[in-house]
Amino acid sequence: MKKLLLIVCFCIGASALFSQDLKKLSLSFYGGTKVLSPSLNEDWPIRQDVSYGYYSDEFNARVNLNGDFAYLGISPEYLINKNWSVSSGLRFSKYLSSIIKDDYDRGGFFFLRVNQENERTDFARIKAIKENSSFIGIPWEVKYTPLVLRYFDLHAKLTIELAYRLNTRTDIEFKDEAMRAYQRDILREIGVKANPWLSTTSLSVGARLKLSKQVYLSGDWSAPAFYMTKNNSSLVYTNNLGGFQLSIDWVL
Q: Residue 237 and residue 215: Cα distance in Å, rounded?
């Protein structure tokens, strides 16, 4: 009987402790985007100059570099005290990069060297090269909240993320559609590879608005991220200018 009583007391005590911890837990569902300023990976044998410039009143041999980075995630957050909290979770990211001819809509193209043997060099006419990559990652965050009001608070975050590349697809849009049959051979000949790992460190500031007793809406603006891994895209080198994240936080 005493053993049974001890077990019951232990279970009640553990439940009480767990319920107290639950008050310190919240679950965040979030999504965000990063503003990128890419530069060309010089391993691609492209013949023209690369620039953001565009001249609508004259012909030019330039191409545009584009990069888009978006992500969705879920993250449990543990409140250490009134001002400090830590969190981790899972994040799914999509990274789209492209090299597109300035006058693409008018049938423009640039030249890509596809073969070089002795004194012979073969070029293909290219309208665009696009790469689509997917990542699964684990972010670790430390949040400091210096201002806590009844319905509003301000915070700053330090985020470190390690992500693994799930898949990558590279498509070449040829001027001559018949060349598409040789895309795989051309990509193999060029041989440019991307790093399977992506790791970043970033700082952000944000605000959180209380919508109800358990639900909060948060917005965060991030400073340029520091990329600890290189060759995150086979097409372009990534320079991050900042980003924005929106999340719904549910206090358990």
A: 39
Model pLDDT for residues 116-150, shown as the tens digit of each residue: 777 787 888 899 999 999 999 999 999 999 998 98
Q: Is 64 left (phi over 0), alpha (psi -120 to 50) or beta?
A: beta
H helix and E strand count, the chain: 2, 13
Contact, 249 vs 218, CB < 8 A? yes
In sequence order, what are the beta bridge partners of 245?
32, 220
pLDDT digits (tens, 9 = 90+) for 21-35: 445 899 999 999 998
**Does the domain at residues 25-251 carry the CATH identifier 2.40.160?**
yes
Q: What is the three-class DSSP state of 38?
A: coil
Nearest to 94 by CA among 127, 64, 137: 137
Dig out the tokens for 174 from the structure: 């040829």
Q: Residue 145 is encoded by which pair of tokens? A: 């909240």
Q: What is the CA radius of gyration of the chain?
A: 25
C-alpha distances out from residue 23 to 77, 93, 106, 237, Å? 11, 30, 60, 43
Contacts of 13 (CB under 8 A, 6+ apart): none
